């Protein structure tokens, strides 16, 4: 039988607990194996559940433009300020 760790946090404590769990199960006789693959815990699922919407429909509220939007704006501004020279 094979098991997988579900909703593991990205912390040193979580990694240590997972390692100890694997060791304990190995000592039991190798009838059960815990894979190295994990399913990470993500905040989106908790926020979507709180808002009572499916996770794939959750849209976080933003307080301003995203970094990629700011870069796009800077590129567009720089492009529009260049002198026009048509290619021939």
Characterization of this structure:
The protein has one domain (2-79). The protein is α+β, with helices and mostly antiparallel strands. The chain has three helices and two strands.
Characteristics:
88 residues, alpha+beta, two-stranded parallel ribbon, 3 helices, 45% helix, 17% strand, elongated
- Which residues sit in consecutive blocks of at least 5 with pLDDT less than 50? none
* N-to-C span: 70 Å
- Rounded to an integer, what's the Rg over CA atoms? 24 Å
The protein's oligomeric status is single chain
Task: Sum up the overall morphology in one term.
Answer: elongated
The helix content, as a percent range, equals 40-55%
**Main sheet?**
2 strands, parallel
Structural class: alpha+beta
What is the element string, with H for helices and E for strands? EHEHH
Summarize the structure.
This protein has 88 residues and is an alpha+beta fold. The protein has helices at residues 12-27, 43-51, 67-81, and strands at 2-8, 33-40.
Map the helices and strands.
Blueprint: E1 2-8, H1 12-27, E2 33-40, H2 43-51, H3 67-81
